[in-house]
Amino acid sequence: MKQLQALIFDVDGTLSDTERDGHLVAFNKAFADAGLDWNWTVEIYGDLLTVTGGKERIKYFLERYLPDFRPEGEFETFVADLHAAKTEHYKALMVDPGLPLRPGVERLLREARDAGMRLAIATTTTPANVTALLRNSLAEDAEDWFDVIAAGDVVPAKKPAPDIFVWAMEQLNLPPESCMAIEDSDNGVKSVRGAGIRSLLITVNDYTRHQDFSDATLVVDHLGDEGQPSKVLAGPDLVNDQVDLDALRNIHQYAWK
Ligand code: XBP
Ligand code: MG
Q1: Nearest by Cα to 151 from 134, 138, 137
Q2: Model pTM greater than 0.85?
Q3: Which of the chain's ends, N or C, has fewer CB atoms near its CB within 10 Å?
Q4: HSE on the CB side for 83, CA within 13 Å?
Q5: Which whole number is the average pLDDT over 177-186?
């Protein structure tokens, strides 16, 4: 049995509700700037979330909803430019109005950091988006809290492929038995399990609460914070009403027993 040495966090939907309140808003702003009359609703976006990655999501939208659409100029360039404009809007939204972290995220990160637990990120989103969220919603120096920030196109295949978690563990120089992943989606579960990580905590959100998390070690509504107890949806009970470091060490043992 290996000791738990690192926590690898997903970003979107896990650290913050960035999908609904960040990415979706930024996509629609970029479409309007480009003179496109596309308006992704919260509902349509729920379907589009089956595909991870913003560029990949735009392509999936076109295939599924506008199969006859042809941009002026080269298709890949059109998608890349639209996506770059979306990233600019996203970064601006992280500053104004900014987005809160989900309950207990800051508490757990601070506890883990103080205890010397190594921290990493594995996400499909663009690196600049991660930086913008961490700086504005956590702390000015929050990027330095993480030994590894694995993001976006650093690997060719995005979640549900395991590549981003494999890459993060290579950078950490740790095997799967020493790591726990914290995720919010079924695509995340597939990626984590494909990378050989068994220790998996899920915090659900409105987009993901009905997905299949039977492969997770523990499923909660959120991590829990002062006055906001965490509710266990599947897996072993929490001793306190929060997911703290003791709880993570316990579920790590449980996952590998
Ligand atoms: C997150 C995503 C991301 C964002 C968009 O998935 O799918 O693609 O929605 O980011 P996960 P970019 O939480 O599973 O990592 O537009 O920067 O690609
Ligand atoms: Mg996510």
Answers
A1: 134
A2: yes
A3: C
A4: 18
A5: 98
